[in-house]
Amino acid sequence: MRILIIGAVAGGTSAAAKARRNSEDAEIIIFEKDVDISYSGCGLPYYIGGEVEKRSELVPRDAAFFREKYNVDVRTSHEVLDIDPNGKVLKVRDLNDGREYEEAYDKLIISTGARPFVPQMDGVSLDGVFTLRNVQSADRIRDFLRSKSPKRAVIVGTGFIGLELCEVLVKNGLEVHMVEKLPQVTPGLDSDMSNYLRDYLEKKGVILHLGTSATSIEGEGTVSGVTLESGETISADMVILAIGVRPETTLAKNCGIETGQSGAIRTDKSMRTSIPDIYACGDCAESFSLITGKPVYRPLGSTANKTGRIAGNAIFNDSLEFRGVLGTGIFRVFDMTVGQTGLTEREAIAEGYDIEVSHNIKPDRPTYYGGKEMVIKSVADRKTGRLLGVQIVGYGGVDKRIDVFVTAISFGARAEDLFHLDLAYAPPFSTTKDPVMYTGMILDNAMRGGRSIADPRLIGNGTYDGEEVQIIDARAAGQYMEGHVEGAVSMPHETVREKLSGLDRDKPVIAYCNKGTTGNAVQNILLNNGFTMVYNISGGNTNYRTQKKKRD
Amino acid sequence: MRILIIGAVAGGTSAAAKARRNSEDAEIIIFEKDVDISYSGCGLPYYIGGEVEKRSELVPRDAAFFREKYNVDVRTSHEVLDIDPNGKVLKVRDLNDGREYEEAYDKLIISTGARPFVPQMDGVSLDGVFTLRNVQSADRIRDFLRSKSPKRAVIVGTGFIGLELCEVLVKNGLEVHMVEKLPQVTPGLDSDMSNYLRDYLEKKGVILHLGTSATSIEGEGTVSGVTLESGETISADMVILAIGVRPETTLAKNCGIETGQSGAIRTDKSMRTSIPDIYACGDCAESFSLITGKPVYRPLGSTANKTGRIAGNAIFNDSLEFRGVLGTGIFRVFDMTVGQTGLTEREAIAEGYDIEVSHNIKPDRPTYYGGKEMVIKSVADRKTGRLLGVQIVGYGGVDKRIDVFVTAISFGARAEDLFHLDLAYAPPFSTTKDPVMYTGMILDNAMRGGRSIADPRLIGNGTYDGEEVQIIDARAAGQYMEGHVEGAVSMPHETVREKLSGLDRDKPVIAYCNKGTTGNAVQNILLNNGFTMVYNISGGNTNYRTQKKKRD
């Protein structure tokens, strides 16, 4: 058995290791165009920033390691030029000496990864314009920062790589501009959650240019600025293009392997491509949603490891099948963590779900123990009660809650299940009821308990979604005075029972407090007193303020 | 509807709040013997230690709050003397003035909590002998530390309260002795996991007296020492009894309410006791295991909140039923976190399960990003593949992994499911494959892939569980020289393929490395070369060393 693998980063090396675990006899060869192998692509921003000091920490394994430990022949600086699926032969070029030769395979695994998308515009090749793809490209950015001491940078794109690099540059003392085509940062988030991140970035001094594109990069030899659609030019000493990545599928397409709508290689659950004996894994392969079953393209190191292992196993048996992804992602920018999993509100609506949405604002630990608030936006399917997706922004413990949600959603959890989880409680780690449990309670109360949630974006001056409503501010009168929802009257929680007669029972009532808890208490009082149309503002005044804030 | 509640800490106040959410009309009265209500019992150690500075942070709500916000009448310093279930009347004493009166109920909720167990021995009433039950008892310890500046303390009991207090006292400069009847610290853990904690505590300077009991407390008026079974007296300026708690059930028992084997009040899933219209919740109530369905007693603030809410709801409808507990617990002592959920190995064996056990040692984040190792012991049912329980000791990210395991076990996860979880990966938060995933892979490989795991406790000099075996050390020769498993020969991973002929195919082989990964790689080589009896040491030499270490 002769197994050839194209690409030696996360997917390819995982496939090789798993194949070897299945068979001592198989001959396994990996071809890698690059010089580095098996490195942590997700660690690159931290390497540039110096949090990871040594290059060797990012690239812990070399070809000798794979030879000695796994009896795998890793050929770096070897480019595969062509796949002949009929003859089952690869044409390979040794980039060290230009020599070309052929290698025959019984099984082939394509793990060619992804490349940063570079838009077609003037100036992308100027000195000082970077993309981040591999360790060498990280070296170039790191060297540039140290040798050229740039003062101003423009980052095009506000995905997690752009934001992680943004932090690095700000910490290096640069003035950082970020350009994003969409009217929000981080396209993967719902816009309301994106607003929290946006406000935080601006507080950190990042200058955002949203809803506009870069049309050209200026400079003579070296970059001097970026011109936007408006005609405005931002002067800059360096530019990073972080607009996203595209699957590297040239070899696969050239030999007739099918790709999906995403442009990535289509596979079955054993990572088999449309051509017999050829498998694909990692960032060049299409994935599918565990929730909808539909194809998605979500290139990530963790998924590449997973699909690599599955491909390396599938050559020998079908005991391991890919179950799809939830599209989980997480990043840290300065002290803020942003995580998400499953469907966003936007995606859930596009899929035709009738959804319930909640914004739950809670500290990650007791405030007496230094807890800091996180905002958990959750989306559930009203028909089944099932949780569809979650987005969280916060400062501590976000990764924990996202992973708990990931696990719950993977097992088909309904909102009502979350309250029952026997999660670990001690003050250094959580609140007595964990924020995850509150999220379940809020959603379940809305779906089955008649505790309707109002979307702050739909609130006008005394109206909700265009309809006339009564808005009551359940906080202390002093808080109302400092700022309140447009059209709201002050009716502190402890006075509501006495003031019921002042409310019109035929008109919907919207209650709110700072974050939602007291608003819910008042909602309960009204419902239990016979009012029928009572809403609580999702995430209270905190969320309302964030969504209604005048920006620009 | 008249609802009376006995006890105003976690369970009672949760019940009251939920009852009010269900009904505006119900009259709700809570009687509390103590002066403080609704405080965080789990926060008391941190209050004593000063991490929580103000008493008011621990006790954020008072009777006025419940009156104003929930229209609930909380009567502090009011002791319920007697329950008359036929007349549906309580006899109450106002401790402020000694007045006694009766209150009739339609529904009664007993939430009398638990009290620290105080053994019958001389000296327990001496000055300087403490238990930790409520805020006042915490005040006493705090005041004693500040005013008396004790130099030496003995803590009897090594459960989480004892350990949290141990940290406080060590940080206050005291020499701390801990006395534990069992031969291990923290009775709830399996002894092998307890060994990690034990070594850590000793490194922190805590003096442990295990496998012995305190027989008397010495002193004249004020404590001067603790005498152990051996006759040895440890001199001490203060003593804390933290041997565990007992459910406070006197009132319930006196009126004929059934208790379970644990001594706590038996309830159904709606928290109904054996007497109509009387409910129980919180630390006085028995719980049951979500895994076995059998009664357990696991008093915890988080469970009290949960059962309180269920009791408060059950008065009105059966929409919310208690699903039981996994026995999840977590504590931090110095920088170490210890978490557990589900069945221990000991419990699983006692329940008759045929189990697979793994010790997975992995960093919580990439080591290039400051990751520190945690040890994850997991127990699975070989028959079904289901995960039964997990214990973790580590320094960071333990709470996250425990909560992911809690969620997985709650949904009946099999070991093989863990690899497929789309957990959130970025270097500040996790490794590319999360430690949770590795745990699932190791267990599944053992149960379905023939990758048997050897328990280091069963390894003798060239034997395993009494049988003669070949033990091979797969690490670099230099590591072998520095110390190795008794009876092992050095056979570094990269040399194994050449040295196969030197091994006896008819005798079992046990491979190992430092933590398990390379041992598994060698195990694969042997199995794929036709060897049939091949084990990998669980947790490798690290775990072996910890388990075989000579102590005392």
TrEMBL record, chains A, B:
Residue stretches making up the Rhodanese domain: 465-549
What cofactor does its activity depend on? FAD
InterPro entries named among the record's database cross-references: FAD-bd_OxRdtase (IPR050260), FAD/NAD-bd_sf (IPR036188), FAD/NAD-binding_dom (IPR023753), FAD/NAD-linked_Rdtase_dimer_sf (IPR016156), Pyr_nucl-diS_OxRdtase_dimer (IPR004099), Rhodanese-like_dom (IPR001763), Rhodanese-like_dom_sf (IPR036873)
Which Pfam families does the record match to this protein? Pyr_redox_2, Pyr_redox_dim, Rhodanese
Domain of life assignment: Bacteria
Q: Which UniProt keywords apply?
A: FAD, Flavoprotein, Oxidoreductase, Redox-active center
PANTHER family reported in the protein's UniProt record? NAD(P)H SULFUR OXIDOREDUCTASE (COA-DEPENDENT) (PTHR43429:SF1), PYRIDINE NUCLEOTIDE-DISULFIDE OXIDOREDUCTASE DOMAIN-CONTAINING (PTHR43429)
Q: Which family does it belong to?
A: Belongs to the class-III pyridine nucleotide-disulfide oxidoreductase family.
**Protein known as:** NADPH-dependent 2,4-dienoyl-CoA reductase/sulfur reductase-like enzyme/rhodanese-related sulfurtransferase
